[in-house]
Amino acid sequence: MGIRFLKFIIIILLQLFFSSFLYGTDIITSSQNLSDGRTLVSSDGSFELGFFSPGNSGKSRYLGIWYKNIPVQNVVWVANRCNPINDSSGVLMINNTGNLVLLNQSGSVIWASNSKKEAQNPEVQLLDSGNLVLQDRIDGNPATPLWQSFDYPTDSWLPGMKFGWDLSTGLNRRLSAWNSPDDPCPGDLTYGIELYNLPDLVMRKGSRKYFRTGNWKGGVANQFFTPNSIANEQEIYLIYHTKSKSVITRLVLNQTTGGARRIIWNEEARTWTVYSQFPSDDCDNYGTCGAYGNCVNTEIPPCQCLKGFKQKSQELNSVDWSQGCVRNNPLDCQKGDGFKKFGGLKLPDAEHSWVNESMDLDDCRDKCLENCSCTAYTILDIKEDRGCVIWFADLIDLKLFPPAAQDLYIRMSVADSDHEETKSNNKLKAALIIAAAILVVVSVVVITYYIRRSNRSIEEREIDRSNARQNEDLELPFFEFVFKNEVALIAKLQHRNLVKLLGCCIQGEEKMLIYEYMPNKSLDYFIFDDTRRNLLDWSRRFHIICGIARGLLYLHQDSRLRIIHRDIKASNVLLDNEMNPKISDFGLARTFGEQSDGKTNRVVGTYGYMAPEYAINGQFSIKSDVFSFGILLLEIISGKRNRGFYHLSDNINLIGHAWRLWKEGHPLELIDSFGKESCTLSEVLRCIHIGLLCVQQHSKDRPSMSSVVVMLSSETELVQPKEPSFLSNEKFPEINPLFTKPESSSTNEHSFSVLEPR
Ligand SMILES: *[C@@H]1O[C@H](CO)[C@@H](O)[C@H](O)[C@H]1NC(C)=O
Ligand SMILES: *[C@@H]1O[C@H](CO)[C@@H](O)[C@H](O)[C@H]1NC(C)=O
């Protein structure tokens, strides 16, 4: 028994010895202190507290906390931010009132924790979260913190740290940037939750509002961390926790870049990668488009008036949007106004708002109508479908913001408002429907009668028209059959992301289409070339991806003709002088009208981009274009051709490789050498995710281009992709009977050559 006990004691002592040998200690008691040169290390070795001199600040010494296990010093908290010690005489200790104090050589207090409560047995401990806590140890156990560094954040928001308000004490935990990399004293950039009736997450430069998040509760779980929001009588705050201990991440505010970044430590590359940043585009700048102006990032110019509004500035095409927009038809509160529903908007500045947590949407509407200065209303809690928010001022800082699942009801004149379904007018509506039905029946009878009577004359007119059409055709005598499809189609298409056809000519055997000049050739010229690929950084690539998606969406859905392209690939995406993508080559395109799929015996397209159902059964649909788009997306990210990609270890193509990395949990290895530093991690991850959704085996699983466009521009959570097709090159043998026996009759060399990647 005695020996066992001794062994036990020895083991404990050894452990203590080694842990202090490895990490030092994580606690200072009232009888100890920490002088410059010594450090406190959290028990698992994640964080270290000590004295440091940032950047080129010379001899200035600050007390701070940094990551212990990251090579470059990254300070996440500073005590004496504006009050450095000019030599290495600084000492941290607990004074006789139980407060944590930082003293200089002459013993004067440089910084103190200013806890109000008295402590009997105070100690200070650096926790594994990076939180420095001053606590009273009662009966051997630490009691609730008397003070903690997490309550006084500097420029960094760490996992587990509350970001927001303790309402009972008035404590506001918000971030303030360092003045410069050499000076931890606060600059003028701050970021925090502002307590209006509807709380708002606001970044300010000095006193000026600079950026709003729009929905303070926002943020969805991702593979790195889970965010959460808490709002009750005592507290309003945001918090997040990492999904595993190995994830090192923080949100950091930066005066130099003028914004905030969420960064994640990449252990492999031993660098920080940017996961997201904001403001991220011009539309994020507070109030860019003025009152009732809607900022649409993808439009040029980005400012648009909401429907029912016009630009206030009288000058035509004025670029001055500070005055915003005014109503086409003025309100008339006395006679009565209505509302128009707007979806997909970032909620406007909530400074002048009113909130009720129990009202339903109908009550909310009535409440707004009652008060002539009410401009808009919406539901408070969309998850619970309850509560009411009302705005009392001009609506500012609107942005097209697809993740916003919330509708905003804006007060409008009766002429501009929606016809609403409220309880009171349901009866009226029923009566109207009956009346309308009767009207329709009567009109059908009358019209049928007249059509019968005038049938003969219509036939005559029809003949006239077809004659006219033939004459029109004769005005284009140089169209040979092989070119006609493309010319006829493309001439009718107009979109920023489609190439413009200027004309065509035929001389002898030579047949030629004349497109607008694209000085930068095509996408494959860049992404697959070892040197030129460096010209396309991530933001350009993302811009190109979004452009192609919009071009395809236009073809599938918005154009007058509704078109399946059937040959989407890198060489068919041309780039103008500003690197805007333009889809070209409509030689294989088919219009589909209402019927959105078809079948062909002649499979044409490009090997490596073809959807399985098309390659094997000749079935094409808008979803086979989506498949090709998915391949293209993965190619843009990886810089590798789907076909011709061979992973060293086994025989899989690019999709197979992407899928495996995804399954194994390191999708970012797919990124091309164009620079992981330059990219926004969250965007790349999203694109890989979307790419995999597009190449799923079954066409019904693949998203439509309209969902792709929304997914690209939003932060909503995406469904997990199912296994894609063609995991192995072997599954798709090169000698495919469908390719060796193409229908030869009307072979268009232009389209068939594409069986080989160009
Ligand atoms: C702020 O941004 C500048 C410039 O990109 C960078 O040098 C500096 O390290 C950043 N500071 C922090 C605290 O991230
Ligand atoms: C309308 O609401 C504003 C803001 O809450 C308030 O100041 C004003 O008194 C209200 N007007 C009426 C008529 O209720």
TrEMBL record:
Residue spans crossing the bilayer: 430-451
Residue span, Protein kinase domain: 428-726
EC number(s) per entry: 2.7.11.1
Ligase found in the keyword field: no
UniProt GO molecular function: ATP binding; protein serine/threonine kinase activity
Polar residues biased stretches: 742-751
Region Disordered, annotated ranges: 737-758
InterPro entries documented for this protein: Bulb-type_lectin_dom, Bulb-type_lectin_dom_sf, Kinase-like_dom_sf, Pan_app, Prot_kinase_dom, S_locus_glycoprot_dom, Ser-Thr/Tyr_kinase_cat_dom, Ser/Thr_kinase_AS
CDD domains noted in UniProt: B_lectin, PAN_AP_plant
Catalytic activity reported: L-seryl-[protein] + ATP = O-phospho-L-seryl-[protein] + ADP + H(+); L-threonyl-[protein] + ATP = O-phospho-L-threonyl-[protein] + ADP + H(+)
PANTHER family xrefs: RECEPTOR-LIKE SERINE/THREONINE-PROTEIN KINASE SD1-8, S-LOCUS LECTIN KINASE FAMILY PROTEIN
Protein name: Receptor-like serine/threonine-protein kinase
Organism listed in the record: Rubroshorea leprosula
